[in-house]
Amino acid sequence: MMNKKDVIVIGGGPAGCTAAMGLARLGYKVVLCDQAQFPRDKVCGEFISPAADPILARLGILHRIEAMNPKRLKGVAISSYGGKELLIDYPKLPGMEAKPTSLSVP
Ligand SMILES: Cc1cc2nc3c(=O)[nH]c(=O)nc-3n(C[C@H](O)[C@H](O)[C@H](O)COP(=O)(O)OP(=O)(O)OC[C@H]3O[C@@H](n4cnc5c(N)ncnc54)[C@H](O)[C@@H]3O)c2cc1C
Prior knowledge:
The chain is elongated. The longest helix has 12 residues, at about 15-25. The protein has three helices and six strands, in the order E-H-E-H-H-E-E-E-E. It has helices at about 15-25, 50-60, 60-65, and strands at about 5-10, 30-35, 70-75, 75-80, 85-90, 100-105. About 5% of the residues are buried. By secondary structure, it is of the alpha+beta class. Helices cover about 25% and strands about 25% of the residues. The strands form three sheets. It has a two-stranded parallel ribbon. It folds into two domains: about 1-40, no CATH class; about 45-105, no CATH class. A hairpin with a 5-residue loop joins strand 4 (about 75-80) and strand 5. Bound molecules: flavin-adenine dinucleotide (FAD). Flavin-adenine dinucleotide (FAD) binds near residues 12, 13, 14, 35 and 46.
């Protein structure tokens, strides 16, 4: 007998994975398909915005990323070919106890 699903999500990048996890938590039977075989290599700046932390926590996966001992960046550096560099620390936002940091993982 055919294994019935409610939803097919095509593409297992961040958008597809998040959609599939959200739908599965709502009780839908979901199948996630991708043309690539995972884990896949991907060109990336290896930077995840501080704003992603609460989203990853809500998805229940932040602790798994933390377990990989990622680097925590305190801000951004913008440099010119001439060697000039501008360093900007992430600002503390209202309601935050500490300044935010961003994840850096391959
Ligand atoms: C060079 C580069 C560096 C980047 N660096 C960063 C960074 O440092 N930090 C950051 O936050 N973001 C970075 N990004 C942006 C980030 O990659 C995207 O925002 C993110 O991948 C978008 O997620 P997505 O799920 O929408 O799409 P994708 O991650 O592109 O996922 C789409 C998936 O769909 C699959 N797919 C496509 N067509 C089909 C099909 N017909 N059938 C089956 N599967 C299919 C693909 O194989 C892929 O896995 C970078 C992007 C680039 C190009």
